[in-house]
Amino acid sequence: METKIPKYRNLKNVEKKEVILAFVSILKNLSLNDKPLVVNATSRTITTNPNITIEEIQQTLGVQEKTKLDFIRQLYIRSGLKLLKELFPDDNILNMPVISFEENGQTISLNY
Predict the structure, then answer these.
(1) Which residues of 59-95 are buried (b: 16+ CB within 10 A; e: fewer)?
(2) How far is 54 from 57, CA to CA, in rounded Å?
């Protein structure tokens, strides 16, 4: 009996954007205490809700992150494997798209 060895691969450019859009979709659907976490989000920018403070995020979710930027970055890291499995269930993807997050007021830029 022949054992099939799973193939591992990197994401294609179009697939990277698909992963990022799936992550943005998660953010759009998150709310804390009946308030949306983000008020606007695209594949390049996320505008967080000014009515939600990092202290509210820490208390409600029991997280230690010190800024909204850190919270969103950690959420991306923690949701990575799940996103890849949902989007590409039959593939063994080696890595998540690398994103740098940059905060300017309530807006977080995604650079990839």
Answers:
(1) eeeeeebeebbbbbbebbeebbeebbeeeeeeeebee
(2) 5
Long-range pairs of 67-76 with CB within 8 A, sequence gap ≥ 24: 67/103, 68/103, 68/108, 69/101, 69/102, 69/103, 69/108, 72/27, 72/46, 72/48, 72/101, 72/108, 73/101, 75/23, 75/26, 75/27, 76/23, 76/101
pLDDT in tens, 71-109: 999 999 999 999 999 999 999 999 999 999 999 999 999
CB-count exposure of residue 32 (10 Å: 0-12, 13-18, 19+):
middle
Average model confidence (pLDDT) across the chain: 93
Cα dihedral across residues 102, 104, 108, 112: positive or negative: negative
pTM: predicted TM-score of the whole model, two decimal places = 0.87
